Amino acid sequence: MAEPLLRVERLHKHFGGVLATNSVDLSLAPGEIHALIGPNGAGKTTLIHQLSGALKPDAGSIFFDGRDVTRLSLHERVQLGMARSYQITSIFRGANVLHNFALAVLARRGSSVRFWQPLTHERSLFEEARTLAAEVGLSGREQVIAGTLAHGEQRQLEVGLTLATGARLLLLDEPLAGLGPEESRRVVALIAAFKGARTVLLVEHDMDAVFRLADAVSVLDSGRVIASGTPQSIRDNVEVKRAYLGEDLPA
Amino acid sequence: MTQKGLTLGVLVVLVAFPLAAKHWDQLFYVSFASRVLIYALTASSLNLILGYGGMVSFGHAAFLGTGAYTVAILMTEGVTSAWASWPLAVLISALFALAIGAVSLRTRGVYFIMITLAFAQMTYYLFISMRAYGGEDGLNLAQRSGFGFGLDLTSDLTFYYMVLAIVASSLYLMRRLLQARFGQVIQAIRQNETRMEAIGFPTYRYKLICFTIAGGAAGLSGALLANQSGFVSPNLLQWTQSGTLMVMVILGGVGYLWGGALGALVLLLLEEVLSGYTIHWQLGLGCVLLVVVLFARQGIAGMLAALVGERSFERG
């Protein structure tokens, strides 16, 4: 097996008396889609916060591409190639779709401490932004102000901005949250489209989507990884059934 | 009307104004207009961080005062050349802003407001304690800064045109900056700082650079103000002064290119007119501010934008 792209070792985080992350080990091979499931309050988002750098763990280490990134800030990790999306949509609501993507492209192009040339004159920037918009299915919506997009489109933009960082590892926090079946199908197709090209840690409640997309699944309960393996082995795992999946498990 | 046409019109009026004042023998107004222009620069520099960068600084007077004192102190020590003291005023104020910003920008929201206020008050007391340079009483400038090239800044007319040239080019630079990468990044940080970091921008660094630039620009306006009034005092750095600058920005239009200039004009005009009737002129100002905050949140620039059509006054 290839060297893992992301390796998490004995990660700990507690808030007061609550152990939100309890000795979590995790390993993602390059190109795999690894789903992280678990009941509400299991600590999934807290884990994403620590992996992305928004939250400092109390103990443990995070290695990305063999490099210890535990102490790096959010933006430093993005520059190395790990980017996240948000469960609660976080986009530039006042700017149009194209401008949203242009900002993400800009972030990859070195320093923006430039004071003279108007941004709108930077053609290649907006060309790349247009390509990205098309990639996530927002063609023809480039001039629409992001805050006025339909909810599903905003979620596409949310995932799109994460994609636009060019990151090799994507940490997607419930990309399907609040989506109808049709919108959901579109975002699932989007994630399936970069399967193999990017490595994905997918936090998701939608079990259909999880079992359709994931190469591997880890189950989090009360901050602890209680099971990890292929989707089939997770389906068959008795402990998992008891903790979480219950009767909802698709046959 | 296009933005270019509008800007040109304003420039023509500003260039013609002293000639008209001279014609009707009302040279007092030239000096007043210089003051308005100088404050237009101070308020605009605050608008850069407050309106565009979303950094609500309540200590901007510190940089205005530092610039003014730099010129005054250098003058006391025998350095009269504008070529030395004005750039130094910019440099020292900018470095000062860099230091204050480096600490303050680690905080958010109301803590940022309070910490900038605290730093400004510290500076205020620092200048009060400097007995050698007037202490509480302030410091008179023996003369205006010398410029050379046959330009005599002691003439109010020449000084006015000097101020106009400096303020106009500063505002032009600010407009360039806002439309360039740097300004676009700053404005995106105001919109959604978390996301900017999540797509890879070191947002703290960008905000600090912006804060430093604004401090330098305020310092430049301070250097001009010291020359205009021939006097500096710790009052220039007091928190009420920071408050006045904020009122200018809110009155004129937070995050509008013309916001600072319009706010400075209206506030100083109100002061000039109302203080002729009563020493409680600020009561009148308070009423105007209330009306703006309640009924025209976008300020005067925002109102004009609605009148002449969005494009002429567009945000950033």
What does this structure look like?
- The complex is a heterodimer of chains A (251) and B (316).
- Helices cover 35% and strands 24% of the residues of chain A.
- Chain A has nine helices and ten strands.
- In chain A, the strands form two sheets. Chain A has a six-stranded mixed beta sheet, sandwiched between helices. In chain A, strands 2-1-4-5 form a four-stranded antiparallel beta sheet, with helices on one face.
- In chain A, helix 3 runs parallel beside helix 5.
- Helices cover 72% and strands 1% of the residues of chain B.
- Chain B is globular and about 55 Å long.
- Chain B starts with a helix and ends in an 8-residue tail after the last helix.
- In chain B, helix 1 (3-23) packs antiparallel against helix 6, helix 6 packs antiparallel against helix 9 (203-229) and helix 7 packs across helix 9 (203-229).
- Classes of the chains: A alpha/beta (251), B mainly alpha (316).
- Chain A binds chain B through residues 52, 54, 73-76, 78-79, 83-84, 86, 90-95, 103-104, 106-108, 112-120, 122, 161-162, 164-165, and chain B through 173, 176-177, 179-185, 188, 191-192, 194-203, 206, 209.
Q: What's the alpha carbon Rg of chain B, rounded to whole Å?
A: 19 Å
Strand order of the largest sheet of chain A: 6-7-8-3-9-10
Order of helices and strands of chain A: EEEHEEHEHHHEHEHEEHH
Q: Count the helices of chain A. How many?
A: 9
Q: Could you tell me which chain pair has the largest interface and how many residues each side has? A: A-B, 36 and 25 residues
The low-confidence runs of chain A, each spanning 5 or more residues with pLDDT under 50, are none
Mass-distribution shape of chain B = globular
Assembly context of the chains? heterodimer
Largest sheet of chain A: 6 strands, mixed
Helical fraction of chain A equals: 25-40%
What form of chain A results from the Cα inertia axes?
globular
Strand order of the largest sheet of chain B: 1-2
Encode the helix/strand succession of chain B as letters.
Answer: HHHHHEHHHHEHHHH
Radius of gyration of chain A: 18 Å
Biggest sheet architecture of chain B: 2 strands, antiparallel
Approximate strand percentage of chain B: under 5%
Report the sheet-strand fraction of chain A: 15-25%
Mean pLDDT of chain B, as a whole number? Answer: 89
Terminal Cα span of chain A: 30 Å
Number of strands of chain A: 10
